[in-house]
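Consider a typical record:
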Amino acid sequence: MNKLYINGDWVESTSNEIITVLNPATEEVIGEVPKGTKEDVDRAVDGAFTAQKKWAKESGATRAEVARKIGEAIERDKEEWIRLLVQEQGKTMAYARGEIDKSIQYCHYMAGFGLRMEGDTLPSERENEMLLVLKKPIGVVGGIVPWNFPVFVMLRKVIPPLVAGCSVVIKPSTETPLTAYKFAELVHELGLAPGLFQLVPGSGSEVGNAIAAHEKVSLVTMTGSFPAGSKVMEAAATNVKKVNLELGGKAPVIVTQNADIDEAVEHIVQSRIVNTGQVCTNAERVYVQESVIDTFNEKMADRMKAVKYGDPLKDSSVEMGPLISQDQLDDVVSAVQEAKDEGATIVVGGQAVTDRKGFFFEPTVITNAKHEMKIMTEEIFGPVLPITSYETLDQVIDWANDSEYGLSSSIFTNDYNEMMRAINELNFGEVYVNREHDEAIHGYHAGWRKSGVGGADGKYGFEDYLATTVAYLQYDRNKQ
């Protein structure tokens, strides 16, 4: 597709440049899309601004029905969505199916908020007066979508705003724009009012910055790295607009001597290799109590050695696919080498896979890591699991909290007191107990510190797309 989707039509970009899309498992070119410009963003935002005014006046029931129809249309073509997602992003077939199923569920769940834009009434200090707290759509929403969940996270930035009465301008990742184009085709087929969904692919430095800085965009929501989020926040500040940012993570996992070690190993492996470790909530650093660390390390090494990886389109049974790009592969290689140079031990994997095409890295276990090493403090975003030991729960909770990030965390223990201390003392947006990292759509996915501002999912996520008006209503004035 060599056009942009603006105002309900396919239009030429003002740029002659293109973005080439590769299958990360084979390095084959699978598509091209135009590289948008600031001028394209201006066209898209202007159209979205006009369309939103009319859309805001539609009933909540009408807006909810659009969300339900989108979910039904994705379900109708589910197998096509799954295959494209695997081809474009490198997920396993099972995980791609999970993303699409969750996306369908999300559309139907969020549709329920069409009649749940809940305000409030308050008493006044004056006689014959009532205060009405009204919730209204915030306006035009700019959405910047990452490559690791190009369908689900895009819908996180499209469905709630549409249900709330907003219009949306989306910039997909340059690595994975094809699923966004398939979505544009879907809304075009459904006859969504022109301007409510606009699609402008391009670079973050030009298209992303133009969306974030645009005076007619009321909220910009972005999922990505902390440096990218900082730039979005800086651009948004030029017009003092609301931001919703989900950024990086360095999720700590605590395994106590009271844990079921076999259960912990399996859940941690799944949390580390899912999407090839390219998830901001993935298990990024593991702290194991000294009395059980030898047993844990042995079992973890055996399990990671057994992880089957490869091209998900050729073998649907693989547990892990490729990394997204050569740049990402180079970053993971560098991180592992630096850990080795600092004295950590590579007990499983540790190498880029060179006997095939694609951006593959071996499932890797690193032991003898120290809390202060970069492998324990900086996000890896690859299938690499660093492990260190600790003595007491006080010590490990301090270590877990000693991070720039605060998105996700977890503990494995069968001791109720340890569970409750972790839940109350871990300063993270999410604490998982005896399970893998995977948030619920009716929860609230949000981070602390450099992991972001605002959040997504559930009623609290929906409320981010609403603005508040307080009306002071005087009545029966003749009796004053």
User: Anything to note?
Assistant: The first strand starts at residue 4 and ends at 6. DSSP finds 16 helices and 24 strands in the chain. The chain has a mean pLDDT of 92. The radius of gyration is 24 Å.
